[in-house]
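ARCHIVE CARD
CATEGORY: sequence design from structure
SOURCE FIELD: tokenized fold
FIELD CONTENT:
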């Protein structure tokens, strides 16, 4: 069985720019991970997800407006 050679594509959603930047920085240090999108709110995240394929989403649950669970 061969291991996949493609990166895991992730999207990061957080309304706090410093927290989002730090998470993106940490994820970029991990081999095999590619951050394919960032958003500061739910509506921006939904727009990214409609146009970008991803394998995982890191979402802040407490944000102004709709929560990360929405």
């Amino acid at each position: 069985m061969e291991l996949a050679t493609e990166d895991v594509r992730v999207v990061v959603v957080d309304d706090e720019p410093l927290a989002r930047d730090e998470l993106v920085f940490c994820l970029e240090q991990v081999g095999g991970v590619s951050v394919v999108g960032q958003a500061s709110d739910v509506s921006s995240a939904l727009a990214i997800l409609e146009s970008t394929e991803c394998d995982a989403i890191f979402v802040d649950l407490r944000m102004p407006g709709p929560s990360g669970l929405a």
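CARD ANNOTATION: The first strand starts at residue 8 and ends at 13. The CA atoms of residues 7 and 31 lie 8 Å apart.
SHELF: design records, drawer C
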